[in-house]
Amino acid sequence: MKAINVFAAIIYLFITNYSYSQEFDPLDFFPSSVGNVWIYETPSDIVRYEIIKDSVDQYGNKFIFYYLEQPTYQMDTMNNVYFVPYSLNWLKYKLDADSGDTWQVRPEGTSVRRREALVTNKYHTTAFGIPSEILEIEYWNLDYGDTVINEFAIYENTEILAAGFGLLYDYTAHGPVYTIRGCIIEQDTFGIVTTVEEDLQLPDDFALYQNYPNPFNPTTTIKFQLSNYAFVELRVFDLLGREVSVLIKVEKPAGIYELKFHGNDLTSGTYIYTLKTGNSILSKKMLLIK
Q: What residues make up the domain containing 226?
């Protein structure tokens, strides 16, 4: 049941053991000021996240926006951080949690398992050469009807937060998902920070990426890239093979593209999106949860 961290060598590049016992505020694990920027390497490209605005409601809940349309996270007054796009309301982090603490991230549903978080480690260290504290959190999908992590639970991923920096790493049993390159926190720059445009080069391959967010409700983004000028079709099908949407059917030059898919009129379930150009076809699955 226990996940194995196979990325210790990578992590060591940014995190080294440190005996300094400075106490950190729980909110340091999730820097939330407007203008903060994070640059991550993913298996397919380099991504940039920036807090572009925030708002506070009458109850003291802070809403953090990575995109203009809707908030990505909500922070309450109890050091809890919720993942809230498309009304998901998943309890992503408990910033004051300690080793061994668990909590429900999302409840069990008709087509989804209950997800549970487990803090596996908390320790002082340095990150980017600065005294910090690490919070390691594993996420597990429980068997239907279960309320605790046991031998029937399915490991999902591990996230590593650093006080003063936020998310440093996100990885699964298959490899890294996000590895931090650098960040700008409170106008201070750490690591390698460039614009995404400076890191992107003309694609040399035909590729279709996993949609994000996934699961989604009701809108998600589908990204693909073309290595040369081509007539491209992007379609969505249900599991019975019935076409439910044609997103594009047009000629495009080489480049990287993103399209929004809206599932407002669809029922919850798994859908397949297919990218076709010439004799090449790529497909991936996505999950709509309402």
A: 201-288
Question: Which tens digit of pLDDT belongs to each residue from 199-220?
Answer: 444 455 788 999 999 899 999 9
CATH number at residue 211: 2.60.40.2550
Model pLDDT, residue 118 = 98
Alpha-carbon separation of residue 53 from 5, 31, 206 (angstroms):
35, 13, 35
Only one residue has tokens 């029937």, namely 152
Note the pTM of the prediction, 2 decimals.
0.67
- Beta strand 280-288 with 269-277 is antiparallel
> CA gyration radius for the chain?
20
Q: For the chain, what is the domain count?
A: 2
- Does the residue 253 lie in any domain? yes
Confidence of residue 15 (pLDDT cuts 50, 70, 90): low
